[in-house]
Amino acid sequence: MRAAAKAHGAPKVEVSVDCVAYAPHRFIDVQDWDVDFAVFSFYKVYGPHISALYTRSASLASLSPLVHHFLRLEHSAYKLQPGGPGYELAYATTGAVAYLRSLTPSGDLREAFGAIAQHEQTLVAPLLAFLTHPEQRARGVRVVGEENADLSRVPTISFVVGGQKPIRSQDVVKVFDQKGG
To answer: Domains of the chain (ranges plus CATH)?
Structure first.
């Protein structure tokens, strides 16, 4: 992203990534991505309702403090915390990491997210095969986004049926349940 923006003449580029939808499915590596800011919510990875914000040191230094003027926190992440999270929420985040590490014998987070991705791929493949079948295409079904179940795709699937009046999600679920799906 940074290279693309610079290629289009942007003099200074700061890259911010919202990882909320990505975090439950794939490993987040902010250094590899070369981002200045990244945020996600722990509840998306089986933790409490608290978020985390990564800031590159140079980017953090350029931000104005949100705390009282008499606190000298210019070079600290605390300068963005005018209050503080509840201790129980902050500590509960460690349970999410422990859970994710428990998913593989090695305890490696990259491996854990690899295992999650493999499992999701097996769950998504039959649905995508159904939605992209020629019979469904003839009925006007179109998948929004990637149509394959490889590891480049997270398992959130959206589709539309052309020529049909809108249907409420709960009605779709009801029909699937009635058909044993």
So the answer is: 1-102 (3.40.640.10), 115-181 (no CATH)
